Amino acid sequence: MSEKSTYKPPCTITPEILNRVAAISEAIGRLTVLTDQTGALRLRRINRIRTIHGSLAIEGNSLSEAQITAILVGKRVIAPPREVQEVKNALAAYDRFDTWKPEAEKDLLDAHRIMMSGLIDEAGRYRRGGVGVMAGQQVIHMAPPADRVPHLMGDLFGWLATTDAHPLIAGSVFHYEFEFIHPFADGNGRMGRLWQSLILARWNPLFSDIPVESLIFEHQAEYYHALQESTRQIDSAPFIAFMLRMILDALTASAPQVAPQVTPQVGELLGAIQGEMTREALQAALGLSDRKSFRERYLKPALVDGLIEMTIPDKPNSRLQKYRHTDKGCQWLAQHGDG
Predict the structure, then answer these.
(1) Regions in the chain scoring below 70 on pLDDT
(2) Given phi > 0 = left and psi -120 to 50 = alpha, else beta, which region is 112?
(3) Beta carbons within 10 angstroms of residue 60's beta carbon
(4) Burial class of residue 337 (count of CB atoms within 10 Å of its CB; 0-12, 13-18, 19+)
(5) Which residue among 254, 277, 308 closes a domain?
(6) Could you give phi then psi for residue 173, rounded to 5 degrees?
(7) Last residue within a domain, chosen from 254, 279, 314
(8) Residue 43: its pLDDT value, please?
(9) In the prediction, which pLDDT does 258 show?
(10) Which structural domain range is residue 169 located in?
């Protein structure tokens, strides 16, 4: 077993891929510094729900993030039983996330057993029949024959255990090769994405909580196109480039990047807002009488920077207008507020 795997997936490392690896490494470094100071647990739970919502939505599950949250806290949800089962399984799988090793084939089978429990007969076992990947009515990929799956997966895990490729690249290569082999009767998409997240989380634990899945869901057509393009070129480079762009975008969206630009006035405003407040109430809370100065130096910059938002955005001058923190504003407060 100590021999190096001879199998090497075809993959060209382009300058674009190298640049994205560098940018991601830089972004994750910045995020590591910031995450310790933010409401990490709450953020972790929100991102876990986003991840599960994104991954299942790609597979046609219609449950919302609110419904997934309700299932997480044990509430009953009125929805198709299969979709509720999918969510319960995904929550159970992500609970076990930290116990699995990316290079252990038995862990992948265990994860599939949990993810597909009660949904297919072959949960936790490789498929025994042929399978094609469909886009609508069209077959876009015929997977290798079932009798080759154990051998192909053995090769892939052998490569993963011994490769010296950067985890950002190795995770994307594994994800592509996994989808090409399509080793299971069902659940291949969500398993491929789960396993790439696992490979990334072993490199940096922050990836347990970065909702890359929800970005893939937003760019679903590109995801399938990148898979097809890599198959056509017999080279996973197009898929790697796509996945690295999704990872970088997810990191950028997760980063509290507001710290440097906030003026003392905007900082005071953010500290004064409790729930939703009218302009008059805010001015009073800050002890400011000059309406124009308040608008120009406090209100407008906070709105422009996306730190606060209007409760009635389509009627800016409504007499019922109130203002509240955005997620970005909450993150800034979590870092800089006096608590």
Answers:
(1) 1-5, 32-44, 135-136, 254-261, 335-339
(2) alpha
(3) 8
(4) exposed
(5) 254
(6) -65, -45
(7) 254
(8) 61
(9) 43
(10) 15-254
According to the model, what pLDDT value does residue 41 have? 59
User: Which tokens hold the place of 209?
Assistant: 């909580």
Residue 51 maps to which CATH number?
1.10.3290.10
Q: Residue by residue, what is the 3-state secondary structure of 186-236?
A: CCHHHHHHHHHHHHHHHHCHHHHHCCHHHHHHHCHHHHHHHHHHHHHHCCC
Q: Are 226 and 141 in contact (CB under 8 A)?
A: no
Alpha-carbon distance 191 to 250, whole Å? 19
Tokens 């007499």 identify what position? 319
- pTM score above 0.85: no
Sequence-distant (≥ 6) Cβ neighbours of residue 141 within 8 angstroms: 132, 133, 180, 182, 227, 228, 231
311 within domain boundaries: yes
- pLDDT value for 233: 94
Tell me what pLDDT residue 257 has: 47
CA distance 48 to 201: 13
Alpha carbon 292 to chain centroid distance? 42
Do residues 218 and 310 both lie within one domain? no
pLDDT for res 206: 80
Q: How far apart are CA 116 and CA 85, in angstroms?
A: 9
The residue with tokens 């929100």 is 46
Do 218 and 281 lie in one domain? The reply is no
Measured distance CA(239)–CA(274) in Å, rounded: 45
Residue 128 counted as domain residue: yes
Place of tokens 């730190």: 307
Distances (CA, A) of 50 to 80, 102, 184, 198: 20, 22, 25, 16
Q: Tally the residues of the chain.
A: 339
Distance CA 179, CA 201 (A): 20
Residue 321 structure tokens: 């207008």
